[in-house]
């Protein structure tokens, strides 16, 4: 099982995405977002990116989702929708689950899968090398490159975040 | 809106399009598209009534879906080629998905349904920005990936766009919806010639932006959003009726006005590449466009509709001064003799 841990985590990832795409109340969407964030962190860490996994937990789950949870709790309704309360939501959730199960069976049973890109069975999902090039870990080198060669990316993303805040304030201001 | 915030947000729209047009890394292009989308939402929602909010929401949803499709195409391209540069899309699947995503951003058929509804729900100035500036970024990406676009899909979308743009605009009296359907048809003309000669796409884009700017500014000056309201401009500024006539006929593609130039060049390029039926069909379907432009000119400049006496005086606030209007009018009607200069666009 440990060899195929990335595959299993990816399946759980997709299932939690199906869980919030079937549109229960946002509070329950936030719940599966927590699960998917944790599982995504696990996927990143299996590729050797321990720093980025920590970032996911701290910033994404511990910062953004906490704020999201608080604002949703302030704006929630009296009887929020769960997956089993509404037939539509349950139907969409079950449909997504069914499609994921069929895809997993297809991957597990056949030798070579060629949906959009070819990979030969589950074996392609196992990780052989964690991307260490010599002395330094690849993902720490990537983070360092972001702040040196990728300065323009940092400026652009920082500006986008600032303008995002301005836009949200402007849109929700009303008259 | 606070003027400082408005300036910041408008500059971010410009910055987003600039990032899209000058980046060589696919991720930066996607970031540019998202920045553009995010910053134009409050511009679309300048007035806070339910119509503008609904239009902004529709715009945001369709453009976000297109950005997601673009991201998927970028990742498929990355998986098959291992690099992020724009020059060539190496996988046919990625190319098709990318073309569909950019068609959704432009408003090509079958993804055209948001264009009339969004344009109708917003103010005239916001509609101007939506139909001119927002077309630059997706068109620049189509220009850059044009060698690897699947010809069948693009030509189907182009021809259907010209048909839908012509046919859909026939039953409209609201000026913003008419401009939206005209935009769909012009996008169809632009993408039809993209694979054969991208220079002509850029020429058509240039002329289209000039003509659409002119039309919108003429509408803004007379504060008219319906055909009926436009037909009263003879009362306020009689000169603009003539200018509306000339610009609309230029948009319809009649020689000797400058709107004829892109259509002529496109038909010539298509026939040089041995496709005869296609440009014939396109030229015939452009007649539908010409019909509803002529209907506008008929009601505005060629006739005075019978109306009661108290409707004859068109009331508006003080006269708007639009500085850019006279040069735009000249450029959108008299550029045809400059056709040999289109070689500078290469």
Automatic annotation (TrEMBL), chain A:
<dbReference type="GO" id="GO:0031966">
    <property type="term" value="C:mitochondrial membrane"/>
</dbReference>
<feature type="transmembrane region" description="Helical">
    <location>
        <begin position="51"/>
        <end position="71"/>
    </location>
</feature>
<protein>
    <recommendedName>
        <fullName>NADH-ubiquinone oxidoreductase chain 6</fullName>
        <ecNumber>7.1.1.2</ecNumber>
    </recommendedName>
</protein>
<keyword id="KW-0520">NAD</keyword>
<keyword id="KW-0679">Respiratory chain</keyword>
<keyword id="KW-0830">Ubiquinone</keyword>
<dbReference type="InterPro" id="IPR001457">
    <property type="entry name" value="NADH_UbQ/plastoQ_OxRdtase_su6"/>
</dbReference>
<dbReference type="Pfam" id="PF00499">
    <property type="entry name" value="Oxidored_q3"/>
</dbReference>
<keyword id="KW-0813">Transport</keyword>
<keyword id="KW-1133">Transmembrane helix</keyword>
<keyword id="KW-0472">Membrane</keyword>
<keyword id="KW-1278">Translocase</keyword>
<feature type="transmembrane region" description="Helical">
    <location>
        <begin position="146"/>
        <end position="169"/>
    </location>
</feature>
<comment type="similarity">
    <text>Belongs to the complex I subunit 6 family.</text>
</comment>
<keyword id="KW-0249">Electron transport</keyword>
<feature type="transmembrane region" description="Helical">
    <location>
        <begin position="27"/>
        <end position="44"/>
    </location>
</feature>
<dbReference type="InterPro" id="IPR050269">
    <property type="entry name" value="ComplexI_Subunit6"/>
</dbReference>
<keyword id="KW-0812">Transmembrane</keyword>
<dbReference type="GO" id="GO:0008137">
    <property type="term" value="F:NADH dehydrogenase (ubiquinone) activity"/>
</dbReference>
<dbReference type="InterPro" id="IPR042106">
    <property type="entry name" value="Nuo/plastoQ_OxRdtase_6_NuoJ"/>
</dbReference>
<comment type="function">
    <text>Core subunit of the mitochondrial membrane respiratory chain NADH dehydrogenase (Complex I) which catalyzes electron transfer from NADH through the respiratory chain, using ubiquinone as an electron acceptor. Essential for the catalytic activity and assembly of complex I.</text>
</comment>
<keyword id="KW-0496">Mitochondrion</keyword>
Automatic annotation (TrEMBL), chain B:
<comment type="similarity">
    <text>Belongs to the complex I subunit 2 family.</text>
</comment>
<keyword id="KW-0830">Ubiquinone</keyword>
<keyword id="KW-0520">NAD</keyword>
<comment type="subunit">
    <text>Core subunit of respiratory chain NADH dehydrogenase (Complex I) which is composed of 45 different subunits. Interacts with TMEM242.</text>
</comment>
<keyword id="KW-0812">Transmembrane</keyword>
<feature type="transmembrane region" description="Helical">
    <location>
        <begin position="241"/>
        <end position="261"/>
    </location>
</feature>
<feature type="transmembrane region" description="Helical">
    <location>
        <begin position="276"/>
        <end position="294"/>
    </location>
</feature>
<keyword id="KW-0496">Mitochondrion</keyword>
<dbReference type="GO" id="GO:0005743">
    <property type="term" value="C:mitochondrial inner membrane"/>
</dbReference>
<feature type="transmembrane region" description="Helical">
    <location>
        <begin position="151"/>
        <end position="171"/>
    </location>
</feature>
<feature type="transmembrane region" description="Helical">
    <location>
        <begin position="202"/>
        <end position="220"/>
    </location>
</feature>
<keyword id="KW-1278">Translocase</keyword>
<dbReference type="Pfam" id="PF00361">
    <property type="entry name" value="Proton_antipo_M"/>
</dbReference>
<feature type="transmembrane region" description="Helical">
    <location>
        <begin position="57"/>
        <end position="76"/>
    </location>
</feature>
<dbReference type="InterPro" id="IPR010933">
    <property type="entry name" value="NADH_DH_su2_C"/>
</dbReference>
<feature type="transmembrane region" description="Helical">
    <location>
        <begin position="96"/>
        <end position="115"/>
    </location>
</feature>
<keyword id="KW-0249">Electron transport</keyword>
<dbReference type="InterPro" id="IPR050175">
    <property type="entry name" value="Complex_I_Subunit_2"/>
</dbReference>
<keyword id="KW-0472">Membrane</keyword>
<feature type="domain" description="NADH dehydrogenase subunit 2 C-terminal">
    <location>
        <begin position="290"/>
        <end position="342"/>
    </location>
</feature>
<dbReference type="GO" id="GO:0006120">
    <property type="term" value="P:mitochondrial electron transport, NADH to ubiquinone"/>
</dbReference>
<dbReference type="GO" id="GO:0008137">
    <property type="term" value="F:NADH dehydrogenase (ubiquinone) activity"/>
</dbReference>
